[in-house]
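Two proteins, back to back. First:
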Amino acid sequence: MGGPNWCLLVGLCALVPPVTTHGGREEDVTPNTEPEELGYHLAQDGDPLRDPQHCGITFRTPSPCSPPGPPPSISRHELDHLKDLLQDTRASLRDLETAATLEDNQTRYQDVITEALPAIRGANLEFRESLENVRKELEAHVAETDHPQVAEKREKLRKDVRVVAHMLRLTSQLAHSLEATAHQLHAELSQRLRSSATHVTAVTEP
């Protein structure tokens, strides 16, 4: 049934006075008429049910002193999920606390690099100084090659090298000659020993 029709029916029921049960005359509705006499009743919790054939409007308002209803039930699955979520949150908090403690107590990489930078700068400066000294020595050596005494010393060095090389060649030749003489002497001595042994054997035999 639509909304306007329903409102019209409610209004008609409210305006029609109640009918007497014993067939008596209808009583006039006066301004002093109670709501129950007009056909509607403001019901409270615990009131008995009215006659279903009686036309009227019943308004039920909850009692302010009535106890609250039972809380909605939570399934076991939802409870387990909440417990797991709580445990995960606590574990994450512990991990954060541990990480913060380690970061406060241990030396950070930035501090290590900052401490090592002075030593690195010192080693780099020392290397540059050594390289500069080598460069100066090379420049001085190149400058000395144009001096006349350097040419004389170089020629003398070449002569000394040639003398040493000649001595090495003579020594090598002498070594080869001594080795050949030793082999020849060994062969001659071996032959004489064999001849002597043969002669002694021939003399001693009957």
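And the second protein:
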Amino acid sequence: MVETSPSGMTARLSHSNFQQQRIQMSDEHEIPVKVVDRRWWARGADSDPGSGERTSLKPTYVEELERQVAEKDKQVQEYLGKYRQAAQEFESARARMRKEVAKDAERSRREILVSLLEVVDNLDRALDSARRAGTSASDPLLQGVDLVRQQFLAKLDGFGIRRIDPGAEPFDPLLHEAVSAVPAADPSQDGRIVGVVRPGYRIGEEVLRPALVAVAKATQVSRTP
């Protein structure tokens, strides 16, 4: 059995009291430690909702991606606008080109048809000259020329071309072209066609060539009182 001396016990008690006093003093003078939570998902929960400030919960790279997407979308809209404008201009140019082509085709068609009408005019002149010269209607050459003329007129009729060969009818500036005026003693004949210099032709409502005509003009008879 180990005996403890009174001096040893006194030393142990003194050490124990010293430790207790030290612990008590450290509790009284403990320095508070401030802990800052740096977790981004926790910062929004601790914020004051009444402060009017909102902390973004999105990471920086997500915001950057959204910014890039918005910028690309803006560029796409600009490209679409330019494409629509170019497409509209192209359609307008194509429509103008179609109109020009149609005009050129119509002009060429009229020129061809008018040139064919001159052939009929020459056949008419040949027949008139032969008749004025006293050529018999049974003459084979005269009959041949007349047959060619009839066939030519039939071909023109097949294309919808009609002959304008007016008689004693009122002058119509849409169908006729006056080349001479013939005095008429009868006032009722004023403005009427009295002769055809060259027949005209029309296709549908379109006049290819007006008929050249002579028009009667009533003479003024002076009366003495």
